[in-house]
Automatic annotation (TrEMBL):
One of its GO terms (cellular component) is plasma membrane. The chain crosses the membrane at residues 6-32, 53-74, 80-102, 122-141, 161-183, 195-217, 233-252, 259-280, 304-327. It comes from Pedobacter ginsenosidimutans. GO terms for molecular function: electron transfer activity; oxidoreductase activity, acting on diphenols and related substances as donors, oxygen as acceptor. Its main location: membrane. It is found in: Cell membrane. This is Cytochrome D ubiquinol oxidase subunit II. Keywords: Cell membrane, Membrane, Transmembrane, Transmembrane helix. GO terms for biological process: aerobic electron transport chain. Belongs to the cytochrome ubiquinol oxidase subunit 2 family.
Length: 334
């Protein structure tokens, strides 16, 4: 049952990045859109994520619950030593969600719409940035559980070149996902071209910040290159990600947009697999060279069994209805 719980944890993190990350990316795309086109971008974005945007946070909640119940040592380490970036990320999620609702459903249309729009855009950027910073911090080896001063314990673990580079890489990936997803949501050729340009921009940004991640990893002596290129799975994942990107742009040039979302999601999945496979099941790398493993820090057997059973039953009850929700709103748009 332990393997079942870990599988659900990995899937929840992946789906949150692919779906919730695309939601954050929509705000990032709006941030980098010219003033004259922002209104149309907002309308397209709302049609795409409006009906289901709140459901995407379900994956984050599932991941947090799994860590809290099944892997309390990992949950405690994260919530103590990464409490600052976690708090900023959660504030960003709240601010973004509040602004998203008020700018569409506020009974009075006044100057506050200006405020709501900016809160939505900037909080989307900040949330994606700190999501990446947290992810980078977990594998960076900068977290020092033996620190005896505030800065070393609670700042340097996440405020470093590698974690920030991963944060910016995450921002660009979220923007890329959103741009690709939004291409299929518009019928007008002009709007398609705008989102294609945004996808190209975010794609270039992902390459630049991806290179910065490797440079920062080399500087901080993080074996990222070994994880990716000296593992058969990691190397295969990178090759598949590259091939899927080439195919994605080929189909985009040909005007075939139906499978673009699948290809974009597949590419990002392969990138995450390449980075994480080599050091799995280690979830957190510490400054003293130790690692906190999912397999070695799992809760009591009865707890893991009950958690796994609850996840299996919940997936049977919830996932079909979630799929139906996506299906109905997609059919409604068509």
């Amino acid at each position: 049952m332990e393997q079942v719980v870990i599988t659900f944890l990995c899937m929840a993190i992946l789906l949150y990045f692919l779906l919730g990350g695309a939601d954050f990316g929509a705000g990032i795309i709006e941030l980098f859109t010219s003033t004259k086109n922002r209104s149309k971008t907002r309308k397209t974005m709302y049609q795409a994520i409006g009906p289901v945007w709140e459901a995407n946070h379900m994956w984050l909640i599932i991941a947090i619950v799994i860590l809290f119940v099944g892997f309390p040592h990992i949950y405690t380490t994260m919530s103590v030593y990464l409490h600052i970036p976690l708090a900023i990320m959660l504030i960003g999620i709240i601010a973004r969600g509040t602004a998203f609702v008020f700018r569409h459903y506020d009974a009075v249309k006044d100057d506050m719409q200006w405020f709501y729009n900016r809160i939505f855009r900037y909080s989307s950027f900040v949330t994606a940035l700190f999501l990446g910073i947290i992810a980078g911090s977990l594998i960076s080896g900068h977290i020092d559980t033996q620190a005896n001063d505030f800065y070393t314990a609670y700042i340097s673990g996440w405020l470093n070149w590698f974690s920030v580079a991963v944060g910016m890489f995450t921002v660009s990936l979220c923007g890329f996902l959103a741009a690709i997803y939004l291409i299929g949501e518009t019928k007008e050729a002009h709007d398609k071209r705008r989102f294609i340009k945004k996808a190209e921009f975010m794609n270039v940004a992902a390459v630049v910040f991806g290179a910065m991640v490797f440079i920062a990893a080399q500087r901080d002596k993080i074996p990222l290159t070994d994880w990716v290129f000296k593992s058969n799975v990691g190397l295969s994942a990178i090759i598949l990600a590259s091939l899927s990107l080439v195919l994605l742009w080929y189909l985009l040039i040909k005007g075939k947009t139906k499978v673009l979302r699948i290809l974009a999601g597949f590419q990002v999945t392969m990138i995450l697999l390449a980075i994480s496979y080599a050091h799995f099941p280690n979830f957190i790398r510490l400054k003293n060279g130790d690692a906190i493993s999912l397999l070695e820090t799992a809760g009591p057997e009865k707890t893991i069994y009950s958690l796994g059973l609850a996840l299996l039953l919940g997936s049977v009850l919830i996932l079909p209805f979630l799929g139906y929700l996506f299906y109905k709103f997609q059919k409604k748009e068509e």
